[in-house]
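Late entry, written up from scratch paper. The run itself happened at the end of the previous shift, but nothing got recorded in the book at the time, so transcribing now.
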Amino acid sequence: MKRQKEINWSEILILCATFWVSLQHIMHNIFFIIAAAGYITGYLHQAFDFCTTVIARRVADSTRQSKLLNRLLRQCFAPPRNDTSSKIKTGIKSLTDFIIYSLIILIGTLTIHFVPLKVKVDNKQFPVRAVKFIQQNNLSGNLLVLFNWGSYALWQLHPQCLVAVDGRYDGVYPESLISEVARFHYVGKNWNELMTKYHTDIILMNTDYAVYNKLIMLDDWRVVYKDDTSAVFIPITKNREHWIMPDEKFDINNQKFKTRILN
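Output as recorded:
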């Protein structure tokens, strides 16, 4: 009798963990794909064999009067007794492989066709309209933005603006700069030193942060844009009488993504 694949709980744990993280962010999908490619095939074979065996038994029970059909089913699904039945079993296994891999290819193709890869941006978590304000008003220069928004700002504003820090902090920026940004973020000693040391032209800040309350108290900086999520500061010397305001209904997800970072 064919020995079933034993459940390997470490494999199950890896599959569950990678599947969970893939639901948290689209960038993590690759980890689940790699794990599934190595582990899930064996379980699919076992599930398919189980289903075909159950179906065969039920068909056999309902067609007992057909001795020929019963004999054929026994040869297909019973343990190998001779070369003929062994060949039949090998053929069924090949057919199983073909069906499983065909389903994987079909599902993958349909997924790509009907659910194309698209970067989703949460308008409530990222400064979508604030960045649009910077773009529309052609503000450029050194942009002081914190880590959580740095990558988004770089994506949308480069080369118009250069960000203070982004998600590449561990490989691009020196530790001294990271410490200075953290001191600014948490309003530490000489927190505003960062603004003058690197000649800040624009500040993009989360309105929920304590440093925002410090910034609005500065006499030489002005808030030129503010919404429920973020605020844009510029030096008072660069203030204008009229600013172009972004549409309140603006949704970055409806726009065609363009960037010159890799150009």
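Residues 130 and 230 are 7 Å apart (CA to CA).
(Scratch paper discarded after transcription.)
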